[in-house]
Design goal:
alpha+beta, Arc Repressor Mutant, subunit A, Endonuclease, Chain A, 2 domains, seven-stranded mixed sheet, 10 helices, 54% helix, elongated
């Protein structure tokens, strides 16, 4: 076996790499001076006395006094036994400390289990990036149905919502839009892409709030700051089936009043033309 293998094994037993190299040098002769150990092992001479002193302290070497102090290795069966004994002692101490730690932590853990947040099913978001990320997560998690009130300001504009186009391929998707989508050609084309891809859509003059209902379980809605208006938007995510069912009833009621894309387009543009000629 190469020295490098022995060094690795000895370090796993608790020696430093310097100590392992010094011990492997010492076993090759009856005794060495510190200078000889440094030269044979390739260890720095300024460190050799500390390294040999540590081996002596651990019982893996002995110092022989004389005009020049020499060092001799402890027999491997004794040296390895000492290292194993130190490991066992350390493991026993760790097990004892671990048992005490469990006993100390268990009451706090058990107390924590009964301290629940009565509103843990409610999540409040204000950062626009966090809102976008959360909406993307919810949209990707749809199992059967997604219902949406879409109105500005958009977290992700319809023309940029690539993930939404993928969702409507395999799930029921119904959206109600405001007539304002026809004010911006890019937004209108984005909505038209959704309709052509299979989304069921209705259009109304205005919507009371931004709303997403997923699988009659999760609701995501926006609340405008009453002072700052639409420039400051707070998004609330609630996982509550009863609330989702109530809001779905409201969604369906508004859905019944809405127009199709073509009907709404005809409704909006003649009115705009008439306004320009007036």
């Amino acid at each position: 076996m190469e020295n490098v293998d022995f060094i690795g094994q000895l370090t796993r037993l608790g020696l430093t790499s310097y100590e392992a190299k010094a011990y492997l040098t010492l076993i090759r002769r009856d005794s060495f001076t510190a200078a000889q150990v440094a030269r044979q092992s390739g260890l720095p001479r300024q460190r050799i006395y500390d390294v040999l002193g540590s081996l002596v302290q651990k019982g893996l070497a002995v110092a022989r006094p004389g005009n020049v102090v020499k060092y001799a290795a402890t027999a491997p069966e004794l040296a390895i036994g000492l290292l194993l004994a130190a490991h066992r002692e350390g493991l026993t101490r760790m097990e004892r400390d671990a048992r005490q730690m469990v006993a100390d932590l268990k009451p706090a853990f058990e107390e924590g289990q009964i301290q629940t947040d009565p509103l843990e099913y409610i999540e409040v978001l204000r950062d626009r990036r966090a809102i976008n990320d959360r909406f993307a997560e919810l949209q990707a998690a749809v199992k059967e149905e997604i219902l949406v009130f879409t109105k500005p300001p958009y977290a992700t504009p319809p023309q940029e919502n690539v993930e939404g186009l993928e969702v409507i391929q395999d799930h029921e998707a119904r959206s109600i839009y405001e007539y304002s989508v026809f004010d911006e050609p890019a937004v209108m084309r984005g909505v038209q892409r959704f309709v052509e891809a299979g989304e069921q859509a209705r259009f109304v003059p205005s919507l009371p709030l931004k709303l997403v209902i997923i699988d009659e379980t999760i609701v995501m809605f926006g609340m405008e700051d009453p002072v700052a208006g639409s420039s400051e938007l707070t998004i609330v995510v609630v996982e509550h089936k009863s609330l989702a069912k109530v809001l779905k009833t409201a969604f369906n009621a508004i859905w019944e009043t809405g127009l199709t894309f073509d009907e709404a387009h005809e409704e909006v543009f003649p009115r705009a033309a008439a306004a320009q000629s007036a």
